[in-house]
Design goal:
The protein is of the alpha/beta class and about 325 residues long. It contains 14 helices and 7 strands. It has a 7-stranded mixed β-sheet with strand order 3-2-1-4-5-7-6, with helices on both faces. It binds S-adenosylmethionine.
Length: about 325
């Protein structure tokens, strides 16, 4: 008899909502782009007609993936790659491609990884397969670049004084996690509902892990990987991610006439069927059991046509990609 899979402590967000969207497609292969603790993959594999190809950039999930492999055998395969490399997966008849963005509780609660402002010691924040760590950013980037990262990725009102103080203090001492928290708290004196460090830490995580570029490239490649009729499902956790996903589905699910001087037959095509315009959010009872789910938003659409070029989508978010492309000598 097969051993039962016991999930790690991460709670899968909006799991029954996800299942109700994808269950009409059951009987085929699903790509879980963000395997994490395996909650979504397990739900899909509970139906014996399904197989899962799971991806995760974090190699610390390899042991969970190995357990899945021994239980589900050929129905499960895992790749330690970023989802922006999803085009490496060459498979026909994919039913749905699923993204559950952000961090698993296992990553956040591992204080050695410096993802949370509750960590101590070296600023790291790498999810896996990164080019540099947060320590490199804080110790090497110019004041102007730090300012842009904090302003655009954290919407931090105090981006200017915080970046200035980092650059002043790093001349004397190495800035570690607890020092960064002290700097933020010394500048943001007023009490707010949120922890004062939330925005700056969010901004640094986005930059270190190139989350915007990953998402934009991941969505486009998911569309190219998916056959007509398949679904793309995305769960986001902050407003920048949600803005990108909303634009991606909405822009290409509406028929528009690009110019009022053009004849009616030059209407743009509909590439997605967007059956629900508003995002699905967790119920009060889910938020009560799992408070980190409170900022989750789920959006999905079905592919209707091949051949979308996504130029407008890419151009619309180039200003964010440019910030992720800032160099250490900018
Ligand atoms: C919120 S967790 C997923 C949890 C999972 N749905 C579950 O039920 O256990 C997000 C996971 O996605 C991974 N991840 C985030 N960005 C990624 C990317 N660009 N490519 C591949 N994996 C990524 C993280 O390493 C993390 O393990």
């Amino acid at each position: 008899m097969n051993a039962t899979i016991k999930l790690e402590k991460h709670f899968p967000v909006l799991l029954s909502e996800l299942a109700s969207i994808i269950s009409p497609l059951y009987g085929g292969t699903f790509i879980d782009c963000t395997f994490g603790a395996g909650g979504y993959s397990k739900k899909i594999l509970d139906n014996k007609l399904n197989s899962v190809i799971a991806l995760d950039r974090d190699s610390s999930v390899n042991s969970t993936a190995a357990k899945f492999h021994s239980k589900y055998k050929k129905r499960f395969e895992f790749h330690n790659i970023k989802f922006s490399d999803i085009d490496q997966i060459k498979r026909d008849n994919i039913k749905a491609i699923i993204f559950d963005l952000g961090y698993s509780l296992n990553q956040i609660s591992d204080l050695n990884r410096g993802i949370s402002f509750k960590s101590k010691g070296k600023l790291d924040m790498r999810m896996g397969l990164n080019d540099f760590s947060c320590d490199d950013v804080i110790s090497k980037m110019s004041q102007q670049s730090l300012f842009k990262i904090f302003k655009y990725f954290g919407d931090e009102k105090y981006a200017k004084p915080i970046s200035k103080k980092i650059v002043q203090l790093r001349k004397k001492n190495k800035i570690e996690t607890e020092h960064l928290v002290e700097i933020i708290e010394s500048i943001k004196k007023k009490k707010t509902g949120k922890n004062k460090s939330t925005k700056i830490f969010q901004a640094l995580r986005i930059f270190v892990n190139k989350e915007i570029t990953e998402l934009i490239n991941g969505l486009i490649k998911a569309y190219n990987t998916l056959p007509i009729g398949g679904a793309i499902v995305v769960v986001t956790f902050h407003s920048i991610e949600d803005k990108i996903v909303k634009f991606f589905f909405k822009e290409y699910s509406e028929v528009k006439n690009s110019s009022r001087y053009l004849p009616k037959n030059s209407l743009s095509k509909k590439y997605f069927n967007l059956t629900k315009k508003k995002p699905t959010i967790p119920s009060k009872s889910e938020v009560k059991i799992n408070p980190p789910s409170r900022s989750a938003k789920l959006r999905f659409a079905y592919k209707l046509e091949d051949g979308c070029d996504f130029k407008k989508f890419v151009n619309n978010f180039n200003y964010l990609k440019d910030i992720e492309n800032l160099n250490f000598d900018d």
